[in-house]
């Protein structure tokens, strides 16, 4: 069901009756709330509610056990729905351009995650479990308030793109130079004085 890019400010009741629904696109509208019945759709695989006027998310997202992609970017959320970290099949999570200052614990449980976009928020630290996501290919934490990066980035052996631009970092995480598949590394503007000596090892950059 795709009703994205309209001028919807409300959604009709009864969405929970669509028990076979696999994809729901209601992005780019003027919604102030996610239809509460959405979290009762057991077969939902893709949920896109980005670019609306959401300040909250209904409870129960952890019930969407088949969810693979979740887009809640470009809203006014101050927190990531806590149940997100209990979605074992999640591959793409985009919560960029909100008002997040914290991230719920347990991100390391998202072992199928390939893309994590948390740029353009107010985070002061990268979720510590991020470096345990062995299948991560794209990580965007740009435009936050980061002054440090958690250790262990070298464990992200599948990482192709790393965006840490526009923060308060004084150095590039040392483990970055041990990422054989890295193709994109975006670090500016930050108060970084020099790049690691081993940056020449990144042959795909």
Automatic annotation (TrEMBL):
Record key words, sorted: Leucine-rich repeat, Repeat
Manganese: present as a keyword of the record? no
Report domain Disease resistance R13L4/SHOC-2-like LRR positions: 84-165
Q: Which InterPro entries match?
A: Leu-rich_rpt, Leu-rich_rpt_4, Leu-rich_rpt_typical-subtyp, LRR_dom_sf, LRR_domain-containing, LRR_R13L4/SHOC2-like
Q: Name one Pfam family in it.
A: LRR_14
Q: Is-annotated flag, keyword Repeat?
A: yes
Q: Which domain of life is it from?
A: Eukaryota
What protein name applies here?
Leucine-rich repeat protein SHOC-2
Where does this protein come from, organism-wise? Branchiostoma floridae (Florida lancelet)
């Amino acid at each position: 069901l795709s009703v994205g890019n309209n001028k919807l400010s409300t959604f009709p009741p009864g969405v929970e009756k669509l028990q076979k629904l696999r994809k729901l696109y209601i992005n780019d509208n003027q919604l102030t709330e996610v239809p509460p019945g959405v979290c009762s759709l057991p077969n939902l695989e893709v949920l896109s509610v980005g670019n609306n006027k959401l300040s909250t998310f209904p409870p129960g997202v952890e019930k969407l056990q088949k969810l693979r992609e979740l887009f809640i970017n470009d809203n006014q959320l101050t927190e990531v729905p806590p149940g997100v970290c209990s979605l074992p099949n999640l591959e793409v999570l985009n919560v960029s351009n909100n008002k997040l200052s914290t991230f719920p614990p347990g991100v390391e449980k998202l072992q199928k995650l390939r893309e994590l976009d948390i740029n353009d928020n107010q985070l002061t630290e990268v979720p510590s479990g991020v470096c345990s996501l062995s299948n991560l290919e794209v990580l965007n934490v740009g435009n936050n308030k980061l002054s440090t990066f958690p250790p262990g980035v070298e464990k992200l052996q599948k990482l192709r793109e790393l965006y840490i631009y526009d923060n308060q970092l004084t150095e590039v995480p040392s483990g970055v130079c041990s990422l054989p598949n890295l193709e994109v590394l975006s670090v500016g503007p930050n108060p970084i004085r020099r790049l690691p000596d081993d940056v020449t090892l990144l042959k795909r950059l």
